[in-house]
Design brief:
globular; mainly alpha; about 80 residues; single chain
């Protein structure tokens, strides 16, 4: 779980918060409401998840409950991987 969390955090920090301290990204804060992620960036996160973890994200799964926070993303990956 910690590996997934670190990989997701690193991706978001590198792609969307370049130059910002890691403390800017809180695991439980809405990425959309904090203006870190918009619809295009959400697709980038989904592509990252699919490529990194070999998971096919179905259209029905591409909802805020699965992708709006770091913790939600980690939970989604774990559920899809059966962890």
């Amino acid at each position: 779980m910690d590996d997934i969390r670190q990989q997701v955090r690193t991706m978001i920090l590198t792609k969307f918060l370049e130059g910002q301290p890691a403390s800017m990204l809180k695991d439980e804060v809405s990425l959309e409401r904090s203006h870190i992620v918009d619809s295009v960036r959400a697709l980038e996160i989904i592509l990252f998840i699919e490529e990194t973890y070999g998971i096919q994200v179905e259209n029905d799964d591409a909802i805020p409950e699965n992708f709006d926070t770091v913790s939600n993303i980690v939970g989604y990956v774990q559920r899809k991987r059966g962890q």
